[in-house]
C-alpha cells in the first residue's frame, strides 16, 4: 500500500508558528472525521450526492465492456486520439503518462507490441490542432470524444473539425473510427452519437468530471493502449477498503485532508504544492491541481455564508523544480504546504559510469540515478523542514497500475474529506460553468442571447 509520512507538518519539526500539534489535532478531530467518513459512505449511493465515484472501483460491468471493446478494436488502429478537456482529459493524461513506457509515441510498432500511439487534444490552440491532424493518418485513427455535458465548446469544436476531416477521408465508414463517452441520456453528443451510430460509453450519473478517471472516461483510453485496467481498479478497491476506516490514525486520506485544512485555516498556508519525484507522475500533479482547485475553491459554504475559500494548488516536479521553485518555497513567504511523492522502486536501475574519477564529479560514478533522485527527494524534504516549511510525503512502492490507482483514489477521498471540513460543496463548479456560459453567449449559441448582450456591454466597459 502507499504510505503517508506527515511528521514534517508537526510543531516538533517546523515549529509552533508553522506546524500543527498533530497528535492533539488528531484527537480533537477524531469524532468529526469519523462522522465525515461514515457519512460519505452512507450517502454514496444516494442520487444527487455526486458520490458515485466512490463506487467506480466496483463497476465490473464497465470494466467488462471497456475491455471487450478494446480487444475488439485491437490491431485496427495506429493511433488513439482523445478529445476532451478538464476532468474529461486530465485523468487519462495522468495515467497514460504514468503507466505507458516513457516516450510511448516515439517507440516503434514492435517496441509498442503493436499497440497504438495515443494523443490527447485538451486545448483549442489552432496551431497545435492543425499540426496534429496533419501528422495523423485519420484512416488509422480511433477518436474517443469525451464530454459529460456533451456540449463543451472546446471539445465539440475539435469533434466537428475531426469529424469533417474523417468523413472526407473515409466516407460513410468514418463512424467506425469514433467512440463517444458522454452522459447516458442527455447532451448534444449523445444525440449525435446515436444518430450517427457511434459506439458509446457512459459517464455515470453523479460522477463529476474531475472524479471520473475510474469510469469509462479514464479507463477506455487506457485499455485502448493496452494498460492493465484490472490492476488499477484493484488498487482503487484496496484503497477504498483502507479508507473506509473511520479512525483518523488509520486513514491517510483523512490525515492529509485535516493537515491541509488546519494548516490553511490556522496557520495561513493556503498554497498546496504537489511535487512528485518521478517524471512519470508529472501529470498526476496536473490532475491534482484541477481536483483540489475546482473542488475546494468556493465562494459560499453549505449554509449559504460568503466564504471565498480554497487553498491554491501548485504543481512542481522533483528534481527539476529544485532548480526553479524550491528557492521560493524555502525562503519566500511561508504560506505553503508541500506534498512530496517519493517512489521506492523504479522500473529501471540506471548506473552512473565510473568515469572522471579524479574530478569533482567522481563521487557520482558507481552510484545509480535511482539513488540520486531519491537522495534529492529526501534532502529536499529535510531542507524544506529546516526552513520550517510544513510538508508531507506520500511513498509509492512502484509506479504501476495498482499503486497509481491507490494514489489517485486516495487523493479523491482526501479532497472529499477536505470539502466536508471546509463545509463547502466539493462537487459543483459554478465558476467553471460561468465561463462556459459566457463562451456559449459570445459564440452565438441559441438560448444565450441575453447573456451575450450583457457580456458585450461588460466587455466594452473594461
Ligand atoms: O471537473 C469538471 O467538471 C470539469 O473540469 C469538466 O470535466 C470540464 O469542464 C469538461 O466538461 P465536459 O466533460 O462536460 O466536457
Note down, in words, how this protein is organized:
- The chain is α/β, with parallel strands linked by helices and 462 residues long.
- It folds into two domains: 231 residues, Glucose-6-phosphate isomerase like protein, domain 1 (Rossmann fold, 3-Layer(aba) Sandwich); 179 residues, 3-Layer(aba) Sandwich (Rossmann fold).
- Helix content is 46%, strand content 14%.
- The chain contains 17 helices and twelve strands.
- It has a five-stranded mixed beta sheet with strand order 1-12-11-7-10, with helices on both faces. It has a five-stranded parallel beta sheet with strand order 3-2-4-5-6, with helices on both faces. It has a two-stranded antiparallel sheet with strand order 8-9.
- Helix 5 runs antiparallel to helix 12 and helix 11 crosses helix 15.
- The longest helix has 22 residues.
- It is globular, with a radius of gyration of 23 Å.
- The chain starts with a strand and ends with a helix.
- The relative contact order is 0.15.
- The model has no long low-confidence stretch (mean pLDDT 96).
- The chain binds 5-phosphoarabinonic acid.
* Count of alpha/pi helices: 17
Domain count: 2
Strand order of the largest sheet: 1-12-11-7-10
What is the gyration radius calculated from CA atoms? 23 Å
Low-confidence stretches: none
- Euclidean distance between termini CA atoms: 53 Å
Reading off the top of the CATH hierarchy, the class of the largest domain is best stated as Alpha Beta
Strand content: 5-15%
> How many beta-strand runs?
12
Bound ligand species: 5-phosphoarabinonic acid
Described by strand count, sense and barrel closure, the largest sheet is:
5 strands, mixed
Can you tell me the CATH topology of the largest domain? Rossmann fold
Coarse structural class:
alpha/beta
CATH architect. name of the largest domain: 3-Layer(aba) Sandwich
Q: Mind telling me the CATH superfamily name of the largest domain?
A: Glucose-6-phosphate isomerase like protein, domain 1
The H/E string reads: EHHHHEHEHEHEHEHHHEHEEEHEHEHHH
Amino acid at each position: 500500500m502507499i504510505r503517508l509520512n506527515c511528521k514534517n507538518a508537526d510543531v516538533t519539526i517546523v515549529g509552533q508558528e508553522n506546524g500543527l500539534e498533530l497528535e492533539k489535532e488528531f484527537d480533537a478531530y477524531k469524532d468529526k472525521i469519523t462522522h465525515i467518513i461514515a457519512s460519505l459512505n452512507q450517502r454514496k449511493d444516494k442520487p444527487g450526492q455526486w458520490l458515485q465515484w466512490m463506487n467506480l472501483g466496483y463497476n465490473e460491468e464497465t470494466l467488462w465492456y471497456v475491455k471487450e471493446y478494446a480487444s475488439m478494436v485491437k490491431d485496427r488502429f495506429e493511433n488513439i486520439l482523445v478529445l476532451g478537456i478538464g476532468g474529461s482529459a486530465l485523468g487519462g493524461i495522468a495515467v497514460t503518462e504514468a503507466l505507458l513506457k516513457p516516450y510511448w509515441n516515439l517507440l516503434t510498432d514492435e517496441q509498442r507490441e503493436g499497440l497504438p500511439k495515443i494523443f490527447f487534444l485538451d486545448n483549442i490552440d489552432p496551431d497545435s490542432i492543425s499540426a496534429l491532424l496533419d501528422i495523423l493518418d485519420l484512416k488509422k485513427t480511433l477518436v474517443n470524444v469525451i464530454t459529460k455535458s456533451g456540449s463543451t465548446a472546446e471539445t465539440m469544436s475539435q469533434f466537428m473539425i475531426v469529424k469533417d476531416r474523417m468523413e472526407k477521408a473515409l466516407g460513410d465508414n468514418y463512424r467506425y473510427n469514433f467512440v463517444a463517452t458522454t452522459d447516458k441520456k442527455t447532451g448534444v453528443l449523445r444525440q449525435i452519437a446515436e444518430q450517427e451510430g457511434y459506439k458509446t460509453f457512459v459517464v455515470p450519473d453523479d460522477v463529476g468530471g474531475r472524479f471520473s478517471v475510474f469510469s469509462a472516461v479514464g479507463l477506455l483510453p487506457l485499455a485502448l493502449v493496452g494498460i492493465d485496467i484490472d490492476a488499477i481498479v484493484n488498487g482503487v478497491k484496496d484503497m477504498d477498503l483502507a479508507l473506509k476506516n473511520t479512525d483518523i490514525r488509520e486513514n491517510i486520506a483523512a490525515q492529509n485532508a485535516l493537515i491541509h485544512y488546519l494548516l490553511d485555516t490556522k496557520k495561513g498556508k493556503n498554497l498546496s504544492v504537489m511535487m512528485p519525484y518521478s517524471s512519470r507522475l508529472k501529470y498526476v500533479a496536473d490532475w491534482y491541481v484541477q481536483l483540489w482547485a475546482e473542488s475546494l475553491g468556493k465562494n459560499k459554504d453549505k449554509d449559504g455564508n460568503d466564504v471565498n475559500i480554497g487553498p491554491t494548488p501548485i504543481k512542481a516536479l522533483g528534481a527539476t523544480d529544485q532548480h526553479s521553485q524550491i528557492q521560493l518555497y524555502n525562503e519566500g513567504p511561508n504560506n505553503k504546504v508541500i506534498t512530496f511523492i517519493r517512489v521506492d522502486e523504479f522500473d529501471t536501475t540506471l548506473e552512473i559510469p565510473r568515469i572522471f574519477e579524479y574530478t569533482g564529479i567522481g563521487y557520482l560514478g558507481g552510484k545509480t540515478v535511482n539513488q540520486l533522485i531519491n537522495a534529492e527527494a529526501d534532502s529536499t524534504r529535510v531542507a524544506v523542514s529546516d526552513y520550517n516549511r510544513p510538508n508531507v510525503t506520500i511513498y509509492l512502492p512502484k509506479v504501476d497500475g495498482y499503486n497509481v490507482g491507490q494514489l489517485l483514489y486516495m487523493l479523491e477521498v482526501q479532497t472529499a474529506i477536505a470539502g466536508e471540513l471546509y463545509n463547502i460543496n466539493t462537487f459543483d463548479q459554478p465558476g467553471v460553468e460561468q465561463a462556459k456560459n459566457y463562451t456559449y453567449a459570445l459564440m452565438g449559441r441559441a438560448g444565450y442571447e441575453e447573456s451575450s448582450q450583457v457580456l458585450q456591454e461588460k466587455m466594452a466597459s473594461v
